[in-house]
Design goal:
The structure is a homotetramer.
Chain A lengths: L1 E5 L4 H19 L3 E5 L11 H10 L3 E3 L10 H7 L3 E2 L15 E5 L5 E8 L10 H11 L8 E7 L3 H11 L5 E5 L9 E2 L5 E3 L17 H9 L15 E8 L6 E9 L12 H6 L1
Parallel strand pairs in A: 1-2, 2-3, 3-4, 6-7, 7-8, 8-10
Antiparallel strand pairs in A: 1-11, 5-6, 9-10, 11-12
Helix pairs in contact in A: 1-2
Bound molecules: fe (ii) ion (8 copies).
Keywords (chains A, B, C, D): Metal-binding
Organism (chains A, B, C, D): Asticcacaulis benevestitus DSM 16100 = ATCC BAA-896
GO molecular function (chains A, B, C, D): 2',3'-cyclic-nucleotide 3'-phosphodiesterase activity; metal ion binding
Chain lengths: 281, 281, 281, 281
């Protein structure tokens, strides 16, 4: 199975870049499934129904969220109607959070892919144990048996917690990929047990910015500690950042992971489909 | 000028990999100066005189530190004798911190390179303003005039604070590179004003680990919240991670930045010296 | 029912002051039950079996813990044998934490008192939701029916989270009292629903100190950011700090709460038993 | 000299209670100077010119601020015109913060009192070292010589940092009092060197609340992690909380500190002026 995951889309620049590059990439890589983290899709804060639709139109099959899930209040009701929108799974029991934290999708060719979104705890918002929440999902849906692929979007700040989640899921998930820091990491690898891993997918954003936001206000706050304006997404050409993964449908484990960085300022990384694979697909 | 910067060395695996790969790389890339962040060089915590010597022997010209500077108490006295060891610059005035937070080095060919180490504040130890501390150095040593290159090691957790530091120094430093997260980022670029930038250099460490540490104890603490043993560095083959930079000696600004990832599990990235450059050097 | 709760005992000074003052106070106030937070009883860090015994000998019927529960490793096995020792209740499911987070005690006169210890999340160690964990206990043991009194030790940093826990339990617990900050608060009150509340019980410690620790090292670290020695408990005369509570055995709700501050430097507050109550008792 | 300090005023309930109780208390205690922390005076967030005037009319001679200083943007310009408004002193050098962090006032009888406001760092906003900032003020204005009294408003979260500030100033200031937690502490004392100290003055607020705010929304957020509405100040009768201090004008050191808690739900504490003192005054 061939699929891709893209990190936090920041505002219009990110949405536009996905609309520009994603359709061609899907064809080129013969992607069966595309997941995009959309927690910053609407003007940098949360996701509106309108922004979500643009991402679905660009080729997303599933959108994940994070600590900014509800910055646009309409997301609280939109998610109830939209099963392709996935919020963090580790809300505490009294939260009665709307929507779902994991969902099993069926691709056009009939493959089943489980996607979940989970919030880390280190230097983040307080949530219940992300490891226990993920464990419960992995145990109830054994990879290679109950589904063909499992993707864990580990939305977290600390590299330690993300790497720990990678190892925790190793051999039980197809891909563990981090989001939230808005910077792609260069540590993509297949862990010893067969799970593809990258600490952060990076943002789909203009990288002449501060994590996708126009530089001026963040610089003011860092140097003076006194804010003046709201943060606004930077509007220059965005780089869409993510990972491309190939997996073995018999085991559900990964056979390849490559970084994707297309457009904008960052060094470009565009996976290529080998001919043999394409024919076999 | 051609120089390289390597991120946090974690224990023996990191030191050994540098001893193995760095001498050849220096020759291959004709490096004039090598900086290594050594805050985790001694068994993962701080730097001893012995560990520092191994890194100098491997080819380091300068070692930087971070929030783990004094984990080995001997570093408090060693740094007073060793001007090539640089600790964070933004201690508060009452600290009377030993050693220095910045130093101007002269290379074999007579070029002058200013290196400083600074601690970020977001989700880190409390220190005085890193921006003001760096600003003071940059203003007192104008690049291209009082020195040929300036390197800022921004030892910080948050990607936002690191990117802000990059822009803050843009046009005034040759390289702003982050350390501390122990994961290399894939966002190397030359900022609009001419400063090379990468959010994190990554660690020189075994990447089948949790940020360079043996997986078992971190996984135990994340899942149970009850520690059992000390953290120990992972002992598998390390990847040395860093950046290679070329700068224009007339302006001090960067003309090229490439990631370095050699050895171990991560995808390899080895810059090559173009023939013309080598002759011109 | 008449009972007392004392906050974090810090080292020998705190243990000695309890040994000196508690036996007389139990007689004077005709206390049926005494709870002491012991997370700092052993040299300021955790609780050993030996320290626990001194507190039981002084008159404690139950000891609670906190974020320092396991600083003395022997507590991990001691707690399995000692049902009077209560650790935080909100460990995540994978923790399999030793001991118990709540226990129902029977007093000499046959009254049943449920005691639980819970860790707050704001600026503390990561744990599962404290509100959900407490809710489960309160629902399974209705006050005035399944027991005569319920005490919630809310071990937390933030005053907001502690006050929220007070209101969350109001009408369902006899006492919600905070621990962890090592400073008694002056806000004891009976909440609208009948639950006695004080944001922090305060420490049983020498108050010529920094939260019970010898001043020198904390002052050094605050002013220089560079530690030199371990923290040691201050050794001057301690003030034992806590609250005295009277409750209605028919409802389990509180009818009186008074602060206790005896010995040492702080202004003294010693509740007195009214004659009528004593006879009725 | 006799003066009083009141902690964070939360919204209208706090302002009204001060208007009701402060004028009489000033007469009764023959107060020469009154300081009020006003960082939450305007609907719980920051201070407007209008709110400040109400507090001056109620009897304040000086208002201090904190981490909420600029929640009302008009405060950024108002403070430039109003020397009786004091913001945190430890902004970094590049901040160029408006207004002042310390001011020397002269009372009607010609006594000089220096008031400063400083932000703690532990679990708070990042600022430059509070100890260095306070030290500079204390050294430039020796108590008993350059002024008759010095008050340090230590606006901080952690009890440890506040107690450390108390000891740091001991013998050099008349009063070190904490603010920010919105809960009065019961640990008022005169430190060994003669400085009056209380970890937190407490809020001037309705205590049937979560730190002065209406309970509903904080409880929702704590239990569900999903916000619904803005925080609003609780509107029940407020308790005004603070400390009353008497000092020796020859030395500037404290001779007495008593808690003040008047009105509302908390146990009342109203200092009384001894006849002999009144005549001596
Ligand atoms: Fe994001
Ligand atoms: Fe996020
Ligand atoms: Fe570090
Ligand atoms: Fe490090
Ligand atoms: Fe604690
Ligand atoms: Fe404690
Ligand atoms: Fe505050
Ligand atoms: Fe406040």
């Amino acid at each position: 199975m061939r699929f891709a995951f893209f990190g936090d889309v920041v505002g219009r620049a990110g949405r536009d870049a996905l609309a520009e590059h994603l359709p061609g990439l899907k064809r080129k890589l013969d992607l069966e499934f595309v997941i995009i983290n959309a927690e910053n899709a609407s003007a940098g804060f949360g996701v509106s129904e309108n922004s979500a639709r643009q991402l679905f139109d660009a080729g997303a099959d599933c959108l994940t969220l994070g600590n900014h899930s509800w910055d646009q209040k309409e997301a609280l009701t939109y998610i109830v109607r939209e099963p392709r929108l996935i919020r963090p799974i580790n809300y505490p029991p009294l939260a009665d959070a709307p929507g779902r934290g994991a969902n099993l999708f069926e691709t056009a060719s009939g493959k089943r892919i489980l996607v979940m979104n989970v919030l880390g705890l280190v230097n983040m918002a307080s949530m219940d144990d992300p490891f226990a929440a993920v464990d419960k999902q992995l145990e109830s849906c054994p990879i290679g048996m109950a589904c063909d692929a499992i993707v864990v979007d580990m939305h977290a700040e600390a590299t330690s917690e993300k790497m720990a989640m990678g190892h925790f899921c190793d051999g039980r998930a197809t891909l563990v990929v981090g989001t939230h820091t808005h910077v792609p990491t260069g540590d993509h690898q297949i862990l010893p047990g067969g799970t593809a891993y990258q600490t952060d997918a990076g943002a789909c954003a203009d990288y002449d910015s501060v994590i996708g936001m126009d530089k001026e206000e963040p610089l003011r706050r860092f140097t003076t500690r006194i804010g003046k304006e709201r943060y606004r997404p930077a509007s220059g050409p965005a780089t869409i950042c993510g990972v491309y993964v190939e997996s073995d449908d018999r085991t559900g484990l990964a056979t390849r992971i490559e970084p994707i960085r297309i457009g904008g300022r960052l060094s470009q990384s565009i996976p290529s489909l080998k001919v043999a694979e394409f024919q076999a697909g």
